[in-house]
Design a protein that fits this description.
- By secondary structure, this protein is α/β, with parallel strands linked by helices.
- It contains 13 helices and six strands.
- The protein has helices spanning about 1-10, 20-30, 45-50, 55-70, 75-80, 90-100, 100-105, 110-115, 120-130, 135-145, 180-190, 215-220, 230-235, and strands at about 70, 150, 170, 195, 205, 225.
- The strands form two sheets. The chain has a four-stranded parallel sheet, sandwiched between helices.
- The longest helix is centred in the N-terminal third of the chain and has 15 residues, at about 55-70.
């Protein structure tokens, strides 16, 4: 469980700590060098160099990667904590809504329910996580390691004349020219949200080749399906 937590913490979509892979995490935990995520940031080159397949150069690279990881985005840090039901999209919503870890940790379930698309199950999970003294202490120890978060951009206000802001999109299939991550970034920059599943709350489904069951779900629910060209037109019409 501890190893899984550390691997989640270090993964590309979380804090993106290069060199902190499965074999190194196993050695750190088995060798009693790391008990929780904050312990990573006190590791020295000398400690790491004694481990299998490390050496001074590799050890120094890991220490450098850990130093770089201290400067990150708030939503990445939130996602890295491994809170149940909190994926990347919810982490971004939480970061935009609260703007700081202090405000998020202090939020009760009612405050969490005010966050866009956070329902009772997710709100309860987040509140339960921070109500746990062990978890709260772990977060405090992490923050004491000197994290610096980039300023959180406020979400675009959803105006009546803005076709993207406040709308929920689902991406499915392979788009002709856009990578999915690029399409997601474009939607979020315009104030929209990307969800991983189709529901009655979905406003648009952007479908490419081999779209699969999400396209079927959209058609059953009568949700508008956009091709890439229509999607780009919608984004451009917001300008």
């Amino acid at each position: 469980q501890r190893k899984g937590m550390l691997l989640h913490f270090a993964q590309r979509r979380a804090l993106d700590i290069e060199g902190l892979g499965e074999k190194l995490v196993e050695q750190l935990v088995d060798g009693d060098l790391v008990h929780e995520a904050a312990d990573l940031f006190s590791l020295t080159v000398e400690q790491l160099a004694t481990l299998d397949r490390m050496g001074d150069k590799s050890a120094a690279s890991v220490v450098d990667a850990l130093a770089k990881a201290r400067t990150t985005e708030l939503h990445r840090f939130i996602f890295a904590l491994g809170i149940r039901h909190v994926g990347e999209t919810t982490a971004k919503d939480l970061a935009r809504h609260f703007g700081s870890m202090t405000a998020l940790v202090a939020a009760d379930e009612n405050a969490l329910l005010a966050v866009r698309d956070v329902g009772p199950i997710v709100a309860a999970s987040i509140a339960h996580f921070f109500a746990n003294e062990k978890n709260r202490h772990a977060v405090e120890r992490l923050l004491a390691c000197g994290f610096a978060f980039a300023p959180v951009a406020a979400p675009v206000a959803a105006g009546a004349d803005h076709p993207v802001a406040g709308k929920t999109f689902v991406l499915t299939g392979t788009l002709p020219t856009l990578k999915r991550e690029d399409a997601k970034a474009m939607i979020e920059a315009a104030g929209g949200k990307v969800s991983g599943s189709v529901s009655k709350k979905t406003h648009y489904v952007v479908a490419g080749a081999e779209a699969g069951s999400k396209l079927d779900d959209a058609q059953k629910l009568g949700i508008r399906v956009l091709q890439e060209s229509e999607f780009l037109e919608l984004l451009q019409s917001a300008n």
